[in-house]
């Protein structure tokens, strides 16, 4: 039996002799099947290919972990060193012994939490290796391709974890789309770790909100207004998006508020001057 990984989205599937016929996550309109058609790999094959994980400190107690060369959609995880243990926010497909040792040296993991199915990646592999739970929003349970007793499905709008860390469901891109609030981040001014539930765009004073990023399908105005209202009460200076370079370094709360307004105005026909 083999644990097949989809090359385009990085999702690891339940054990099977033959590769799965298709990848539901890539067939979904929020993703796409690669130009060369559906392809599969395994962790052993990726290890043999020379892929490795790099660790980059974004700020004290926040370390980004991503693969080089980039694999799948270039996901990177964020290791948050809270006062009550480490949380891995989002996950990546590649895992090897060197990565395990480096994570252990940073204090190991207490839990994993994931924003949405595009980051489910090899989450069960990580959960088993570190013997930790993985918090997923129950609204996206149908996108889990490899089940495990480590998976914890939470529901509702908010879940307090530990060390001041809080999961907030914003929905939008996926019904269970979740962001992580880290009030101790940015020197105590607060940080939001958002995956692409709130997407940091090329002009990093702004963010955006889409149903599908690769296929450019927008969210309706009422959804963006709902997301804006749901996150408005939280205080945060910095926002960490889906990739290493996608960070709003300062005044991130104001950036989210004004970006939501710009988006809704554009949908109503008022393009920026
Ligand atoms: Zn896929
Ligand atoms: Zn996504």
UniProtKB/TrEMBL annotation:
Domain named Metallo-beta-lactamase: residues: 74-243
InterPro entries: Metallo-B-lactamas (IPR001279), RibonucZ/Hydroxyglut_hydro (IPR036866)
Name the UniProt record assigns to this protein: Metallo-beta-lactamase domain-containing protein
Species per Swiss-Prot/TrEMBL record: Thermogemmatispora aurantia
